[in-house]
Design goal:
alpha+beta; about 210 residues; ten-stranded mixed sheet; Sortase, Chain: A
């Protein structure tokens, strides 16, 4: 009986050490991601117009054939920067996504700011989207294009979706068309802490 208790204690200690290692690794990855996005943001700021020349984007339909403007920084293509004042976040956003790019910055998952259906994803690092699920309804979210046009949004609602709910995340109806009744012009999403679901922050254009 005593030997069994000893083994249980040893196993418990090993599990605690493993958990501590995972926490430390997550903190390290978050710090590395923060440094990478800060570096990319610096390069993006150098290529963008100065802040005093930025202007609010009017809610008008883009001309046919209009595409998002981009800037290349260190071999990666960016469409602009995301500002969330209440979380003190200022992050560059890449034009498209893959898992390696997500280690550097948030990425456009689908849609466009031009068509009012953009979806942006990021890791749940503290330096990226780790706290977006704490945003208050009505919180300001700004997306600034590489041309210095400011698309201003406010948080409409926050929901939790399963990883398989791709069309729901993108705000699509059953026929894979944008569901205009929902009125979400911007969605930010990231994994929950356990990685089993996704926090989706829905925003409407101001």
């Amino acid at each position: 009986m005593r030997r069994r208790s000893t083994w249980m204690i040893i196993i418990g200690i090993l599990l605690l050490l493993a958990a501590g290692g995972l926490v430390f690794r997550n903190m390290q990855e978050s710090a590395e991601a923060g440094e990478a996005s800060d570096s990319a943001l610096t390069g993006l700021e150098e290529a963008m117009p100065s802040e005093d020349t930025w202007s609010i984007a009017l809610p008008t339909l883009p001309e046919e054939g209009t595409e998002m403007t981009t800037v290349e920084v260190d071999g990666y293509t960016y469409i602009g920067r995301l500002e969330i004042p209440s979380l003190e976040l200022s992050l560059p956003v890449m034009k498209d996504w893959d898992y390696n790019k997500l280690n550097i910055s948030p990425c456009r998952y689908s849609g466009s700011y031009l068509s009012d259906d953009m979806v942006i994803c990021a890791h749940n690092f503290a330096s990226h989207f780790g706290a977006i699920h704490t945003l208050a309804i009505g919180a300001e979210v700004d997306f600034i294009t590489t041309e210095g046009r400011v698309y201003r949004y406010s948080v409409s609602n926050i929901e939790t979706l399963q990883p398989t709910m791709v069309s729901e995340m993108m705000g699509l109806d059953e026929d894979l068309l944008v569901d205009e009744e929902k009125g979400w012009e911007l969605t930010l999403f990231t994994c929950t802490v356990d990685g089993r679901a996704r926090h989706a922050v829905r925003c409407i254009r101001q």
